Amino acid sequence: MKNILEIMKNKNEVLLMYGAICLLGALVCIIISRYSVLEVMGVNAWMKPIKFFISVTVFSWTMGWYLQYLENQRQVEIYSWSMVVLFSVEMVLIIYQAAQGKMSHFNQETAIDRTIFSLMALAITVLMLHTLYIAILFFKQSQFEAPETLILAVKLSLLVTVLFAFEGFVMGAALKHTIGSQDGSQGLPLVNWSTRHGDLRVAHFFGIHALQIIPLLSYWLARSKREVMVIAFVYFAFVSYTLWLALQGKPLIKL
């Protein structure tokens, strides 16, 4: 672990530090949640900032690690700061709404709420388009100082991540994430995915975290590029299945 942090510090200190700041933000929100009585749809209002802070930490550190393999470090620097700015916009707005006990996503109650939701959608859209550009740079580069299987896994995971990040538009168009009912139905612990109806957040979650899961599975299981492609395809099929399931109004786990 110490070696990984040292490499990150040397290769991308910006994302290392930003991930650490977001992790600290998650801890602060956990403390606040212990004393806050604010709720959004029956869930402590600070749960969403906690989950998003953790997700941003994981995303930042993962991308910080992968970006060391790109030769165009000027574009890496631009993307790193783009991530810091755009994620920060997202997190500030989520925290602002949580502090008022209001929904941050899909909230159309007032003009301010609509503006906040639109700004969040814009920030993430720009970031994912920039991430797609980084994926293109990976595909265009011919030589890497890393095993071919790892680089292929990173390339494919980036594509799946961007694709299912844009699945957020499906939720945005519907102004909810539950199919077959209104948001706020009985859900699984922590993630709160509906256990009675379809939930579009399932595919969104697994799709975005393809960024970590596909390379990890490839590291553990793959011995060739063909095996990496099989792993990526199976994972893509699984995430697509969770999306299909949600669109049918069916939960991933029914309780």
What is the gist of this entry?
By secondary structure, this protein is mostly helical. It has helices spanning 2-11, 13-35, 47-66, 73-99, 111-140, 148-165, 168-174, 201-208, 210-221, 225-247, and strands at 39-40, 43-44, 178-179, 198-199. The protein starts with a helix and ends in an 8-residue tail after the last helix.
What does this structure look like?
The chain contains 10 helices and 4 strands; from the N terminus they run ααββαααααββααα. The longest helix has 30 residues, at 111-140. The chain has 255 residues and is mostly helical. The strands form 2 sheets. Strands 1-2 form a two-stranded antiparallel ribbon. It has a two-stranded antiparallel sheet with strand order 3-4. The chain folds into 2 domains: 1-145; 148-255, no CATH class. The chain starts with a helix and ends in an 8-residue tail after the last helix. The chain is 70% helix and 3% strand. α4 packs antiparallel against α5 (111-140) and α5 (111-140) runs antiparallel to α6. β1 (39-40) and β2 form a beta hairpin.
